[in-house]
Amino acid sequence: MLTVAPDIDVLVRFGRALADPIRCRILLALREAPAYPADLADALGISRTRLSNHLACLRDCGLVVTVPDGRRTRYELADERLGHALDDLRTAVVAVETDRTCVDADDKGCC
């Protein structure tokens, strides 16, 4: 049964997904069109095993869903608004100073 996550949970899940470059690439690819895992792995130049792990994370975060298609399974964004959100984030990031690096909280630094 699907439920709607609270606002903070949604942001944390989205942040977790975006924290990895491969997951970002997957989300951007799925923003363009739904895809099958084998095609995604080939397009991104990564192994199917590695892709599978990242897709599982994105599914667990609630950002992608699987759609049965005969004997195959297709992946797509869970909500078309996620594609718009990715576009908005991509355009917002260009305002960040390019000579600064965002560090992890464990490094005791801040963007």
TrEMBL record:
Q: Does the keyword Transcription regulation apply?
A: yes
Q: Where is the HTH arsR-type domain?
A: 3-100
Q: Please, one GO biological process term? A: response to lead ion
Keyword flag Membrane: no
Q: Could you tell me the keywords of this UniProt record?
A: Cadmium, DNA-binding, Metal-binding, Transcription, Transcription regulation
Which superkingdom heads the taxonomic lineage of this protein's source? Bacteria
GO MF terms listed in the record are:
cadmium ion sensor activity; DNA binding; DNA-binding transcription factor activity; lead ion binding
Q: Which CDD domains match?
A: HTH_ARSR (cd00090)
Q: How does it assemble?
A: Homodimer.
Q: What does this protein do?
A: Metal-responsive transcriptional repressor for the cmt operon. Binding of cadmium or lead causes the repressor to dissociate from the DNA.
What protein name is recorded for this chain? HTH-type transcriptional regulator CmtR
**Organism encoding this protein:** Streptomyces dysideae
